[in-house]
Design brief:
Rossmann fold, 2 domains
Length: about 250
C-alpha cells in the first residue's frame, strides 16, 4: 500500500490548543498511533476554522481550559465547519460543568487531562466512527444527563409556535424511539437491519428537516409531541461493549 493510500484510510486529526508545547506533546502521542494522522494544528479558534475548511479533518481535538458560554460557541463554530466530522474535547478540569458544556457544544467525546493515553486514542477512534463516546461519560454522570434533557426541553418550549413539522417515515420514528431508549447508531442499525452510516445519514436528514442541531433536541422534540413513547428511559445504564448514550444526542 502506498503512503497516500495509507493516509487516505487513516483518521485525519486537527489539534486545537493555545499552548505550543501541549500541542507538540499531544501530536507526538497521536502520531505514534497507527491509522491516526495529524493534518494540522491551530492555536486559536479562528485558525482552526480556516484549517477545518482547508483540511476537512475527520476529528477536531480541542483543548478546553474552562467551561464558559464562549467555549460552547467556539465548539459550535468548529462543528459547523466539520458537519461530517467529530469534535473531541480534551478538558483540563474533568467536572460535570465541563461535560455539560461539551454536550451542548456538540462534542462527540470528552476526555479529562488525567485520562490515560489509550483512553484519548480510543475516544478519537470511536468519535471518528460516529459512536459518540461522550454517551458513556453521560451514562456515568446521570445528573448531567438530566440537565442536558432539561436544557433542550426548555429550548423546545421556547421554539416559536405555529410551525408544522414534516411527516416522518416509519423508519425515522423507529430511529427516534430507539435513540430515546439509549441506543447508539451501531445498535439502532442492528435493530433495523441497516448500516451505522445509514442511521447517521437518516439522523442528519431528520435534523435538517426539523431545523434542529442535535439528536438530544430531536428526541426531546419527538417526546413532547407524542411521536414516541414518553416512558423511554432518559439515562440508561452503560453496557460494556457498545456504550449507550444518555439523553440521546
Amino acid at each position: 500500500m502506498s503512503t497516500e493510500d495509507s493516509r487516505a484510510d487513516s483518521i485525519s486529526l486537527l489539534i486545537v490548543d493555545e499552548h505550543p508545547l501541549l500541542r507538540a506533546g499531544v501530536r507526538t502521542l497521536l502520531e505514534g498511533e497507527a491509522g491516526v494522522v495529524v493534518v494540522a494544528e491551530a492555536e486559536t479558534i479562528d485558525e482552526a476554522v480556516d484549517l477545518c475548511r482547508a483540511k476537512a479533518p475527520d476529528v477536531v481535538l480541542m483543548e478546553v481550559n474552562e467551561a464558559s458560554a464562549d467555549t460552547v460557541e467556539a465548539m459550535r463554530r468548529l462543528r459547523r465547519e466539520v458537519p461530517d466530522g467529530a469534535l473531541v474535547v480534551l478538558a483540563r478540569h474533568d467536572d460535570d460543568e465541563q461535560v455539560f458544556r461539551a454536550v451542548v457544544g456538540g462534542a462527540a467525546g470528552h476526555v479529562g487531562e488525567t485520562a490515560r493515553p489509550d483512553e484519548l486514542v480510543n475516544t478519537i477512534r470511536q468519535a471518528a466512527a460516529g459512536r459518540e463516546p461522550i454517551q458513556r461519560t453521560l451514562a456515568e454522570r446521570p445528573a448531567v444527563g438530566r440537565r442536558v434533557l432539561e436544557a433542550f426541553a426548555d429550548l423546545t418550549r421556547r421554539r416559536p409556535a405555529g410551525r408544522r413539522d414534516p411527516d416522518l417515515s416509519d423508519r425515522e420514528l423507529r430511529i427516534l424511539d430507539l435513540a430515546a431508549r439509549g441506543q447508539t447508531n451501531y445498535q439502532i442499525g442492528r435493530a433495523l437491519g441497516v448500516s451505522e452510516h445509514t442511521v447517521k445519514s437518516s439522523f442528519s436528514q431528520l435534523l435538517g428537516r426539523l431545523g434542529l442541531r442535535h439528536r438530544t433536541e430531536a428526541v426531546v422534540h419527538a417526546l413532547r409531541r407524542g411521536w414516541i413513547d414518553s416512558s423511554a428511559p432518559a439515562v440508561p445504564r452503560a453496557e460494556p461493549e457498545q456504550p449507550p448514550f444518555v439523553a440521546p444526542d
